[in-house]
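seq as requested:
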Amino acid sequence: MHRDHWQRKIAELDPETDYEQIARISAMHEFPWDSQQALSFALFRTYAVPSIGRLLFDTGEFTRAVQKRHDDTTILLERIAETGLESSEGRAGVRRMNQMHGSYDISHDDLRYVLATFVVTPARWVDRYGWRQITPAERLASVRYYQRLGRLMGISEIPADFAGFAELMDSYERENYAANAASRAVADSTLDLFVTFYPRPLRGVMRRFSVALLDDHLRAALGYPKPPRIISALAHGSLTARGRLVRRLPPRRRPKLLRDTHRVRSYPGGFMIEHLGTFPSTMPKQTGESLIT
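struct tokens:
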């Protein structure tokens, strides 16, 4: 297989109709590690919105059971993408998310913002650190994928294109980011989990690198100090160097899934989509049982 094998495959597909296949190739063959990291940072940046940070803190799930919450989110999103939004398992995954979201008072504005982070953050990450730039077809396929996911989640006023998603994300952060103790507690708990993915001697360094990779306005809202210039340069430089190294590697033949790595630890014996996530005692029985088609 030539290094451009998957690029040529993507070029044969139509992002308007084959967006799920293109999204799978991009996330699971071309940029699996980058996509995984970028989505983690996408979720992390949502904590700085006080309404989101406080909700996550109040549930207690992101402080006392952060590993399971990480695993449930990873498996749900990955399994939906792997099997397809229109598949029975994909629909079961979306229904499970709708049931969880429906049991809390979450505004459409917050849901729309989170959706935007999933579109914009991975594209910006790959353009900055990936082994190649994201292609127009990959960018459009990501937009169409998350537009469809958003419709299945019942989210209104979804942006029409990537520029719309980018403007939504950036403006929402400008208008809503604010320091609060709950958001910081959730962020600290997430970072505590993240560093356990690395050998013990590297954990302090990885924590400092992670904070250095945060956008200035996100870091300020969460109350983390600005890192020394050398730490920031090393953090960003190491990712750039990794991209140049990956450029020399052969294409990935088999899809790489995060649930098959050591980072997902909660289900060594397997899982059922219907049993993932939270089940608040106040959850309405019918919440999320229907999907918008």
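The CA atoms of residues 39 and 118 lie 6 Å apart.
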